[in-house]
Specification:
The complex is a heterodimer of chains A (about 240) and B (about 300).
Chain A (H helix, E strand, L loop, with lengths): L3 E11 L7 E9 L3 E5 L6 H8 L4 E9 L2 E2 L8 H4 L1 E4 L11 H8 L5 H14 L16 H13 L5 E5 L7 H16 L3 E5 L3 H7 L2 E6 L2 E7 H5 L2 H8 L1 H5 L1
Parallel strand pairs in A: 3-8, 3-9, 6-7, 7-8
Antiparallel strand pairs in A: 1-2, 1-4, 4-5, 9-10
Helix pairs in contact in A: 3-5, 5-6
Chain B lengths: L1 H28 L6 H18 L14 H29 L5 H23 L14 E4 L2 E3 L1 H23 L1 H11 L1 H6 L4 H26 L6 H15 L5 H18 L10 H13 L13
Antiparallel strand pairs in B: 1-2
Chain lengths: ~240, ~300
């Protein structure tokens, strides 16, 4: 694998310092790569992403982006560092209009550039255009996810982290969101996503990490892991309990 | 009746101004700041202090009882109130934020309120004071309606500030950031907003508004160390009726409480007037716990 864009080395983190949820997790994402993290409920997938995003304290280990140490970065400085993060739930401001949501997301940019990027966001996601002046709360599940992704793209990040982008979406919308993400990777952005919808996510991603009980279990090219019986076993819980 | 409505609008405009500061801090800092009322008292007395300390001439402007000195003193008082708010946040609320439940912050604000009120009592004494000894005669403007020139200025100032705050929240980056934090602090941070910066600006805006509201109340009634304390209930009633964090709601809530209070005096003994905001509050919490106007405006 080429030099990693994001590198996570031996990270231990949790909501309380003495109660780690994830232990000694290591992984990496190369530039322009789409990487999926899967695993049964409680595996620590979301915890890992929140820890990288600075929402949870990392008690040991290191996170680097392009060689620069971003361990325990303040969440609000992520955009500067070149990462965008789309949380799983409540990833848009429902009391603000669609336009205001994008303006909030563009705050780290100088004003003229912000205007330009917002205009670009409407061109990339034309479905959002009619809702500019409406409260984002009126959007459908799929449109909300589009807005969240459009917001994340404003700062032109090198890496986007998404926590279950397909959660709560109708199957047709899942396909739409996933094909959008696959398209994004072609533009050179790297994507790291956590997914419950393991099969569909693996089908569009380059590599997959399987977590269980807060630790690394398996990883490799998604195409290979798709037919790996061990993945199914981890999901059924047997492999998790064997240790 | 006409007089009651006019009085209600005047009181309501001061309530509205106090309530937007309160609703902003409640929405963004996520706790009910009982010391907000004392910041109003502090602002009112700081203006008095500036007037006394520099023994500024109290040359009235036209038909008003006050002049430029009070306007200047108000600006300085607003600055001093912001300083107080920032100091309190630095040493009290900031130390607790994120570490304790919001009820602990509420109790801390009670403590801060007591401290400020008694400090004012200590410096200025407990007797009622006035910005000026000028007398003002109410001018009849319509049959059964008399208005004092001061009241017109108080009303106009309150309305102008309410509009200014609304425009600030709607049109500036900082205002937008404040509204974003008001809805979700974690998501605001994900969007690249520094919480510390927004908190600081919330105290600046909230403190300045409290000071001006305090001075306006002092101009239209009188200054007492309990000035803010007596406004506490109407302000909370206004903010809650309007939906916490909703600025337009707080303004409408303020006018609602002011009007109901003054009209009620026509039917019930004046001594019960103070209970009116409490009844409105109870009614709102019973029928519409999220506030009458919650989610209906963009002023959040």
């Amino acid at each position: 694998m080429s030099a990693a864009l994001l590198s996570v080395a031996g990270v231990t983190a949790g909501y309380q310092p003495d109660l780690p949820i994830i232990r000694d997790i290591s992984m990496s994402v190369a530039a322009g790569e789409l990487v999926t993290i899967i695993g049964p409920n409680g595996a620590g997938k979301s915890t890992l992403i929140k820890a990288i995003a600075g929402q949870l304290r990392i008690t040991s280990g290191r996170v680097t982006l392009d060689g620069a140490d971003i361990t325990n970065i303040a969440t609000y400085r992520m955009a500067e560092a070149g990462i965008a993060y789309v949380p799983q739930t409540e990833n848009i401001f429902s009391t603000l209009t669609v336009d205001e949501n994008l303006r909030v997301g563009a705050q780290p940019l100088p004003k003229p550039e912000a205007r330009e990027r917002i205009a670009e966001a409407y061109r990339t996601f034309p479905d959002l255009d009619p809702f500019r002046r409406q409260k984002a709360g009126v959007l459908s599940g799929g449109q909300r996810q589009m807005l969240a992704v459009a917001r994340a793209l404003l700062t032109q990040p090198r890496l986007i982290m998404l926590d279950e982008p397909s959660a709560g979406l109708a199957p047709k919308m899942v396909d739409e969101v996933f094909s959008r993400l696959a398209g994004l990777v072609k533009t050179g952005v790297a994507i790291l996503m956590v997914e419950q919808n393991a099969k569909a996510a693996m089908q569009i991603s380059d590599r997959t990490y399987v977590l269980a009980e807060g630790a690394n279990r398996l990883d490799g090219p998604s195409a290979r892991l798709l037919d790996d019986p061990e993945v199914a076993e981890i999901y059924l819980g047997r492999a998790g309990r064997k240790v | 009746m006409l007089q009651a409505l006019a009085d209600g609008l005047l009181t309501g405009s001061i309530y509205a101004l106090g309530a937007i500061g309160l609703t902003l801090t409640m929405g963004i800092l996520r706790f009910a700041n009982f010391a907000h009322a004392e910041m109003m008292t502090w602002g009112a007395y700081m203006a008095l202090g500036v007037l006394t300390l520099f023994s500024l001439p109290t040359a009235p402007l036209g038909p008003l009882t006050f002049g430029w000195p009070l306007i200047l003193a108000t600006v300085i008082a607003a600055g001093l109130t912001v300083v107080l708010a920032l100091i309190v946040d630095r040493f009290v609320f900031g130390k607790l934020r994120g570490k304790v439940g919001h009820l602990t912050l509420v109790f801390a604000s009670f403590g801060v309120a007591l401290l400020i009120r008694n400090l004012i009592n200590l410096i200025f004494g407990g007797r009622a004071q006035y910005y000026t000894s000028e007398l003002q005669i109410a001018v009849p403007v319509a049959p059964g309606l008399r208005i004092m020139p001061d009241q017109v200025v108080v009303f106009a100032t309150a309305i102008a500030l309410v509009i200014a705050v609304h425009l600030f929240l709607q049109n500036t980056r900082l205002g937008l950031a404040m509204r974003a934090v008001s809805e979700s602090p974690p998501l605001a941070q994900v969007n690249g907003i520094s919480l510390a910066r927004v908190v600081r600006w919330t105290w600046i805006v909230g403190g300045a508004l409290a000071a001006v509201a305090g001075v306006l109340y002092g101009v239209s009634v009188q200054l007492r160390p309990e000035l803010g304390f007596h406004l506490l209930l109407p302000l909370f009633a206004a903010a809650i009726a309007g939906g916490v964090g909703n600025v337009i709601g707080a303004v409408l809530g303020g006018f609602l409480i002011g009007l109901i209070e003054s009209v009620s005096v026509l039917v019930i003994p004046a001594g019960y007037k103070l209970a009116i905001p409490f009844l409105v509050l109870l009614a709102v919490l019973y029928f519409r716990p999220t506030g009458i106007f919650a989610g209906t405006t963009g002023g959040k």
